[in-house]
Structures are given as structure tokens and as C-alpha cells.
Amino acid sequence: MVMNSLFASDAGFSHEPPPAQPLERLSASEAAARLARPEGRERPFIISGMTRSWPACRRWSPTFFKERYGDRSIVVERWRSGVATTDPMAFLRNRYYSRESLRAVIEHMEAGLEAPGSCYITYANIFEDAQELNADIEPLHEQLGVPNHYPAQLRRWLCLRPGFWLGPAGTVSTVHYDRHENFNVQVYGRKRWTLFAPGDAAALYANSAELPVVLFSPVDVERPDYGRYPSFRQARPLQGDLDPGDVIFVPCSWWHHVRALEMSITLNYWWWSARAAWAAARVGYLQARRHVGLRIASGGESEDAASMPTE
Ligand SMILES: O=C(O)CCC(=O)C(=O)O
């Protein structure tokens, strides 16, 4: 089955993304069996309804956080107004972070006072000041991600803290890859995920000198400019929508683009594996090379490489 993009039709055929194939969907028991085999970790899949019974999926909503945690401050990713966030170049150049009250941020999002997608809480550490929220979730990466024959202490050490994401409909994470394995849990609202295999790196113009951060692609995968990026026609996207309680497994180094279809709350669970350590070393090398190149080109005046929103 070929899925159509929601966002492609307005500008005519020349901006149509390559057709996407649907992401595979598994039950929780099928996913556990798949992940028990190393070769089962080569491709992404959605685990349908896996966390539906978590208290987080039953209780958490923007209203829940506004009413109970509204006075806490949180780091918010913002873009200067008027920015088309589907364009990776504009996304990276116009992004900044600020610390604000959770109540004010959520009220603005709910009232639609922000330009669509111009305000997003990304990978926040909501649990630091609200330890009790840990009772509403489970350490999915420790349970299902890290191989279960590893010693308990090592399993914990390989897992990063869960990240909390909250944003209005229309937020977009432009196409990038991460240096970790990932389970991403959709807690509230719906999101559309579009993934590309590491083998599509050339079609995504990976390592483009246009961008300060090597983890990102310059291609707007929802509205590609084939004049600038003709090889993107060769990319083979996978696509699927996550409902509350669904989980997506994103293997390390798989490219992903995410659009919130509704106001959303998401948790992500990153963990280290051997291939993740290799990916991190490679990214470190490429980023250092990019930074030196930019400094030489600018006569020593260039900014440091932009911080990475998904870190
Ligand atoms: O949900 C999003 O907007 C992006 C999530 C993401 O990039 C991740 O979990 O690695």
C-alpha cells in the first residue's frame, strides 16, 4: 500500500515527496520477540497500543500539566515568528531556547496565540522536579531495549533519562538522525512519523556543508525542492501515524521527520548500543571537521556548532 502525503498537493507535482510505504505495526508480544533477535533491530516498527494502560497515557494532558505543574519553569524551543518550520535551514537558523512557566507556555499553545509550530518543549527533564511522575511511566529502554542478559547496573548505565516533549499541532522536527537507539511513546495527541534508512543518506544530502549540524538533512521532505536536491527522488520513506499508547522503535542512525497532527505529549527513551557508540564517534568526527571548516572559512569568526535539539 502506498500512502499519500497530506502536505504535498498544493504546489503541484514538482514538490511531491517520493511515495511512502507504511511502517510495520506489531503487537507488544511480537515486538518483544522481534527485539530479542539482533537482526530484529535493523528496521523501525510501531508497537500498537503498547503503553495504553500506563497512568501517563490515561492521566496526562496539557490541562493536567497546566493545573498541577503550571508554576514550574521549563526550557522551550522557539522560532522567530514567520519561520516556515518545514524548511530545515530556516528551522536551524531561527531556533532559540528560553526558560518559561509551563502554565504560560501551555496557555499560549492552547489559545493558538503562537504561529503554528513556533513553540515546542523538547526532551525536557520534567522528572527532575516532579519525581512522582515516574510512577506514571515505565523504563521501556531498560525493559525491552538493552539486551536482558546484561547485568542490571550496566542496563541502567546504558539508558538515558526519558525526555518529555509537549507541543501544539503543527510542530515539526525536521529530518535528522540520532546517535542512540530510541523508543518514542505517544502519550497524548497524534503524530506522523516519516523515516528513511541510513542507506538513504546520499538522497538526503547528509553532511551538507549548508548546515551547521551534521545530524540534519537540508531537504524539506514534505515539500522537496528537486531543483536543488534531485537525488531525493531516490529516497524510500516509511510513514506511520502514532496514536496515544503507540510506541515507535527507531534504530540508531535512521533518519526521521516528525509532524504533530494534534497537540501532543511524547516521551522518548534513548539508550546506548555498540552501533550507537560507533555512530557517536563518527558524528563527533564529522562535527569537529565541520566546525574547523566553518572557522577557517569565516577567518575564525564562526559561531560554535548549533546545539542539537534532540540531545
Ligand atoms: O517528536 C518529535 O518531534 C521528535 C522526536 C525525536 O526526534 C526523537 O525522539 O528522536
UniProtKB/TrEMBL annotation:
<dbReference type="Pfam" id="PF13621">
    <property type="entry name" value="Cupin_8"/>
</dbReference>
<feature type="domain" description="JmjC">
    <location>
        <begin position="127"/>
        <end position="286"/>
    </location>
</feature>
<protein>
    <submittedName>
        <fullName>Cupin-like domain-containing protein</fullName>
    </submittedName>
</protein>
<feature type="region of interest" description="Disordered">
    <location>
        <begin position="1"/>
        <end position="22"/>
    </location>
</feature>
<dbReference type="InterPro" id="IPR003347">
    <property type="entry name" value="JmjC_dom"/>
</dbReference>
<dbReference type="InterPro" id="IPR041667">
    <property type="entry name" value="Cupin_8"/>
</dbReference>
